């Protein structure tokens, strides 16, 4: 049997293999990683009929252009992605959230994400990639995970195996919600900041700067004045932690964040809003809204229920 | 012992052991860390020890803050694990090519470089925590005549395996990374081995480290 593979004609921006991430290694400096937008990751695998946490290709803003060689394979794209399939000099416009087919010599051009950041490519087959510390997720800082811990490279080959013989034309309609309010629980150092700063933090808008990647988001807005200590003794961080730098700017820790940090924590983004936050493109403005723990827990239950509902609608 | 447990967001516990940085408090943190790891409380996804805090992350779809807090508080592990760290010996080459900030330190500390190295190599160091970047150990405490502030402008790229000093701490840059610590040498050992799929990090929290000096030719041999 001939080999099935993708040839990378254009790698795109920060294109990596991701699954649901790796647990239990924070204490040696290895963060969760994993797909940034978990809901779109879960949906991609559900449409493919793959196991829940199968690895997918994640890309940011601009996706890869891939030539496919091999037997017919089904794939789907999730997120808000503009893409095309180039087949025998014909261009087919791609539609997200449905299984589509790739045949020998077809080209898949994941052109860009629309008013969002991350998109996902899932195939109804498996990528032939390596596993490291319980996960395929690429962490480019520690150089671990699939693809030797690296982003996709131009001209590289991605081998594919276990192409599903049976398939279904799964599809469903889903519109990613675009929001600007991000709900936040106050952090352990909230009272390090002046009264005015605390008010500004929940009143003013902050712009997502270009210094934003899988590690974190740097925000630009009113300076948050620290009246106690601008540095603390370094301590652990979690996804969604908002630290205030010595310059008074908020930085939000994302999936590949450094595991410990020495800036005071003003708050933490609630788990249910994380997927939405990571999808807000640089240049946009966001606003933080204070919420308590109990409400955050309830909202998370609703978020999970909604994800389950969405998956049950796939047919 | 734990002074207070609060929430860090909706999916983590923030256990506060105090504000001081010393071995006694940190041993408490590490003992707690090891015991919680052993207890296999369902839903815990990560435990992060640092100087005087322990952060316990959990999966909000399986459990919640109140449940984990109760379970952690009910754990009774008196005399269960006596912290036994390993002693690890790390070779360091202090050739001028690697000791990027030795001249700055000579000025700042008002010491000759021979004195600086003598003081540095004559002590054993305790690993308070590992992290920030994969496998990076935070070691202490330096002889107090070696306390120096960070560089005013951090380096964009500190070479991999550099040994850095700041305040009472030293560390090893396990990857090329931005950083502002005063660099005094380089080790040929890989402190974090990303080819090792079971235990990639050489140094764990609670371990004891002793550094010894090697020549440039020994350094190059270790590499080859």
Question: How would you portray this structure in words?
Answer:
- The complex is a heterodimer of chains A (315) and B (224).
- With 315 residues, chain A is α+β, with helices and mostly antiparallel strands.
- Chain A folds into two domains: 4-161, no CATH class; 181-311, Cyclophilin-like (Cyclophilin, Beta Barrel), CATH 2.40.100.10.
- Helices cover 15% and strands 32% of the residues of chain A.
- Chain A is built from five helices and 21 strands.
- Chain A has helices at residues 38-47, 146-149, 195-203, 274-278, 293-312; strands at residues 4-10, 16-18, 56-60, 65-69, 73-78, 81-87, 90-93, 100-102, 107-113, 118-123, 126-127, 157-161, 181-186, 205-212, 216-220, 235-236, 241-244, 250-253, 260-261, 265-269, 285-290.
- Chain A has a seven-stranded antiparallel sheet, with no helix packed on it. In chain A, strands 13-20-17-18-15-14-21 form a seven-stranded mixed β-barrel.
- In chain A, a hairpin with a 3-residue loop joins strand 14 (205-212) and strand 15 (216-220).
- The relative contact order of chain A is 0.17.
- Chain B folds into two domains: 4-74, Gyrase A, domain 2 (2-Layer Sandwich); 87-223, Cyclophilin-like (Cyclophilin), CATH 2.40.100.
- In chain B, strands 5-13-6-7-10-9-12 form a seven-stranded mixed sheet. A four-stranded antiparallel sheet of chain B has the order 1-2-4-3, covered by helices on one side. In chain B, strands 8-11 form a two-stranded antiparallel sheet.
- Chain B contains five helices and 13 strands.
- The mean pLDDT of chain B is 93.
- Chain B is elongated and about 55 Å long.
- In chain B, strand 6 and strand 7 (137-140) form a beta hairpin.
- By secondary structure, chain B is of the alpha+beta class.
- Chain B has helices at residues 23-39, 65-74, 102-109, 113-121, 216-223; strands at 4-7, 12-16, 44-49, 53-58, 87-93, 124-130, 137-140, 155-158, 162-166, 169-172, 177-179, 182-186, 208-214.
- Chain A binds chain B through residues 23-30, 32, 132-133, 139, 141-144, 149, 185, 187-188, 233-238, 240-241, 258-261, 265, 267-271, 293, 296-297, 300, 304, and chain B through 6-12, 14, 16, 19, 21, 33, 45-55, 57, 60-61, 64-65, 129-136, 138, 174-175, 177, 192, 194, 197, 200-201, 204-205.
């Amino acid at each position: 049997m001939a080999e099935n593979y993708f040839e990378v004609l254009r790698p795109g921006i920060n294109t990596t293999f991701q699954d649901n991430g790796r647990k239990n290694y924070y204490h040696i400096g290895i963060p969760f990683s994993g797909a940034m937008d978990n809901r779109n990751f879960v949906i991609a695998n559900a449409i493919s009929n793959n196991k829940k946490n199968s690895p997918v290709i994640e890309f940011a803003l601009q996706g890869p252009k891939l030539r496919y060689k091999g037997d017919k394979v089904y794939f789907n794209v999730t997120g808000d992605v503009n893409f095309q399939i180039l087949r025998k000099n014909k261009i087919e416009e791609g539609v997200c959230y449905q299984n589509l087919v790739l045949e020998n010599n077809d080209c898949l051009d994941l052109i860009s994400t629309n008013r969002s950041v991350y998109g996902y490519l899932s195939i109804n087959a498996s990528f032939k990639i390596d596993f490291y510390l319980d996960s395929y997720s690429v962490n480019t800082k520690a150089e671990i995970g699939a693809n030797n811990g690296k982003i996709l490279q131009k001209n590289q080959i991605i081998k594919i195996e276990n192409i599903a013989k049976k398939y279904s034309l799964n599809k469903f309609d889903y519109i990613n919600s675009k929001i600007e309010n991000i709900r936040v629980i106050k952090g352990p150092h909230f009272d390090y900041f002046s009264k005015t700063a605390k008010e500004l933090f929940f009143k003013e808008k902050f712009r997502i700067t270009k210094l934003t990647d899988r590690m974190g988001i740097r925000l630009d807005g009113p300076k948050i004045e620290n009246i106690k200590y601008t540095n603390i003794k370094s301590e652990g961080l979690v996804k969604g932690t908002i630290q205030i730098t010595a310059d008074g700017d908020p930085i939000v820790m994302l999936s590949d964040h450094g595991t410990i940090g020495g800036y005071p924590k003003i708050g933490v983004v609630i788990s249910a809003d994380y997927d939405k936050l990571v999808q807000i493109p640089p240049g946009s403005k966001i606003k933080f809204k204070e919420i308590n723990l109990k409400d955050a827990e309830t909202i998370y239950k609703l978020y999970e229920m909604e994800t389950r509902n969405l998956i049950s609608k796939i047919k | 012992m734990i002074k207070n447990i609060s929430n860090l967001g909706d999916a983590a516990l923030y256990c506060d052991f105090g504000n001081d940085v010393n071995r006694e408090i940190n041993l408490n943190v590490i003992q707690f860390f090891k015991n919680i790891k052993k207890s296999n409380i369902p839903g815990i996804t990560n435990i992060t020890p640092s100087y005087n805090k322990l952060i316990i992350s959990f999966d909000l779809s399986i459990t919640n803050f109140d449940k984990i807090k109760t379970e952690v508080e009910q754990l009774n592990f008196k005399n269960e694990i006596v912290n036994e760290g390993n002693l690890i010996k790390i070779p360091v080459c202090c050739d001028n090519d690697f000791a990027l900030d030795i001249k700055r330190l000579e000025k700042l500390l008002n010491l000759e470089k021979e004195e600086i190295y003598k003081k540095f190599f004559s002590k054993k160091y305790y690993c308070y925590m590992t992290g920030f970047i994969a496998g990076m150990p935070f070691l202490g405490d330096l002889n107090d005549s070696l306390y120096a502030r960070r560089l005013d402008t951090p380096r964009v790229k500190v070479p991999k395996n550099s040994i850095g000093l700041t305040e009472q701490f030293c560390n090893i840059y396990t990857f090329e990374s931005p950083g502002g610590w005063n660099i005094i040498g380089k080790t040929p050992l890989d402190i974090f081995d990303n080819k090792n799929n079971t235990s990639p990090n050489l140094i764990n929290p609670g371990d004891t480290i002793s550094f010894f000096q090697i020549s440039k030719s020994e350094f190059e041999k270790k590499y080859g």
